[in-house]
Specification:
The protein has 310 residues and is mainly alpha-helical. It folds into two domains: 38-131; 134-310, no CATH class. It is built from twelve helices and six strands. The chain has helices at 7-13, 26-31, 43-74, 82-94, 101-129, 134-138, 146-155, 175-181, 201-207, 211-225, 247-262, 283-308, and strands at residues 158-159, 166-167, 186-187, 190-191, 272-273, 279-280. The strands form three sheets. It has a two-stranded antiparallel ribbon with strand order 1-2. Helix 3 packs across helix 7 and helix 7 packs antiparallel against helix 10. The relative contact order is 0.10.
Length: 310
């Protein structure tokens, strides 16, 4: 017997439980969205990641300041020209026989100490992240290294300013909130970190943008796409038919072709064939596709975190 029910009849057939019985109703249970909390048994390991990550960042900041200081000392030799000083610094770092090597030796020696200490912190960082259940999933993502996972956890973990409660990757209220944390959100129609000309101090506070966190995801994206973010599929090929491409490479390539249609070359062509027979997009299109891929990884990580870290 065939029966056709109208939408109204279907709605009427669903019994909405009253307040007294809603806690036992299968319907109410399926509709209820409980806030996720990372299991407390993982807190110690995450705190270890956070601790060594911050120490690593200290070394990176110290290294950056030391390099800038060394280059500043060279500007005296080049009438204050920053580009010449930076070039001379680069040459001296590569060539032990360079004429400026002696002058820069204190900086070079200090950098070696910082690099060694950073390496030690990274060993502890990776050791800690390997104890987390999420690691088993992450190591199956080609291009998503142990250190990359640790850096994301390090930037997306901490204690709430108002509540003092511990939080990490899966504890954000939504993946959109995680995107904002890592500098990848879209706010009021613009890319996070670019509020536009005339932006006030309050506008920048609302942005919640951190160059450091965005830098972490930029570097992660380079690794995911492979070839330092320069991966391109063969011109005109069916992307999904190539078994050598990873899932996230496919995501990048498909999105890049989509963005290229919206952001073509100056000649009007969306995708050109490069000298190596690969797709060639505008830099703007490629960067937008890379950003999209980074967000896809965070979405995957967020979902997996909630599946295995609760």
């Amino acid at each position: 017997m065939n029966m056709t029910l109208s939408p109204a009849a279907l709605c009427a057939a669903i019994q909405i439980p009253d307040a007294a019985t809603s806690h036992t109703s299968p319907i109410s249970i399926s509709l209820r969205r409980e806030p996720f909390t990372t299991n407390v048994r993982h807190h110690d390991a995450i705190e270890q990641v956070l601790y060594f990550y911050r120490l690593r960042q200290d070394m990176i900041r110290a290294r950056t300041k030391l390099i800038l200081q060394g280059q500043a000392s060279l500007r005296r030799l080049f009438d204050g020209d920053k580009e010449q000083a930076a070039s001379a610094w680069s040459d001296a770092m590569k060539d032990e026989a360079h004429q400026l090597r002696g002058m820069l030796s204190p900086y070079i020696a200090a950098l070696e100490v910082l690099d060694k200490q950073q390496s030690e912190y990274e060993k502890h960082l990776v050791k800690s992240v390997k104890t987390l259940p999420i690691y088993a999933w992450a190591k199956g993502i080609k291009g998503f290294g142990d250190l990359s996972l640790a850096c994301i956890i390090g930037e997306a973990s901490g204690y709430g300013k108002e509540t003092g409660e511990f939080y990490s990757v899966g504890d954000f209220k939504s993946v959109s909130a995680l995107w904002k944390r890592m500098g990848l959100a879209v706010l009021n129609g613009h890319r996070q970190g670019a509020p536009g000309k005339g932006a006030t101090a309050e506008d920048w506070i609302v942005e919640g943008y951190s160059k450091t966190r965005r830098s972490v995801m930029w570097n992660v994206g380079n690794s995911l796409i492979l070839s330092m973010g320069k991966f391109r599929p063969v011109f005109g090929e069916e992307i999904r038919s190539n078994p050598e491409y990873t899932e996230l490479q496919c995501v990048f390539a498909e999105r890049a072709r989509y963005e290229a249609e919206r952001l073509p070359h100056k000649c009007g062509t969306a995708i050109k064939e490069s000298k190596t027979g690969k797709d060639s997009y505008t830099l703007h299109a490629a960067n937008r596709a890379k950003r999209y891929t980074e967000k896809r990884l965070l979405r995957m990580l967020y979902a997996e975190w909630r599946a295995c870290m609760g």
